[in-house]
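Pilot study result, target chain (264 residues):
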Amino acid sequence: MKPAFETLQLERRGAVAQLWLNRPEARNAMNDVMSAELLEAFRALGRDASVRVVVLGGRGSAFCSGADLGGMEKAGRATGTRNRAQALRSARFFHALYTFPKPTIARIHGAAFAGGMGLVCACDVVVASEAAVFCLPETRIGLVPAMISPYVTRAMGANAARRYVLSGERFGGAEAKATGMVHELVPDAELDAAVERIARAFVACAPDALAEAKKLLRRVIGAPLTPQLISHTASVIAKCRASAEAREGIASFREKRKPSWAGD
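Predicted structure:
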């Protein structure tokens, strides 16, 4: 990973990596540089065994206001091939975030609009300030939230997605929590403490088991309860309980000590 980014800031707190969107003057709007740097950062963090959890937040007054409209206009004027190629790069990043092998926490304050809401929905856990505001405004400017739609519908459910995708209405943290998209809603002064508490809970868990659990959830959520799925779940637990992590975890439980991977 390069030591400095143009549009991001990376901080470390032990096993927790804090990645900040850092275009506060543009309310952290995502341009091509930020999209490329986000993909690079998550690939590097995924390879770094010392990183166990990634927290994604935004500098300044907003989490993320969505895509940079100047870049959207430029892409729209490009040839069909180049236009689609740019869109595909962004779509691949959202998928990379959703399939990231380690737990991700979205730390939300201020606005999370359009693609910014896509970042929220692609993370595993969402902690938001009571002052957070969400919106999918694309249809109001002649667009659709296409690339983020798979993650939005999974995070907030089909009924809520229909309303907010089609209407472009703004909604607050309480409404977002009611849909299931936000896990914890806290006063702004308590936001960092809530994020830290959840991050530490993840650090206490076995890293390989967490990666396997994330894959399992993607496979089983919404899937038909078929013999193939039942067989898959049996294979997963058989693999896990034969692992070194499971042996260490069970031994530590019996010996009333922390397992080797647990943080302080």
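One observation from the pilot: Residues 56 and 93 are 14 Å apart (CA to CA). A full batch analysis is planned for the follow-on phase.
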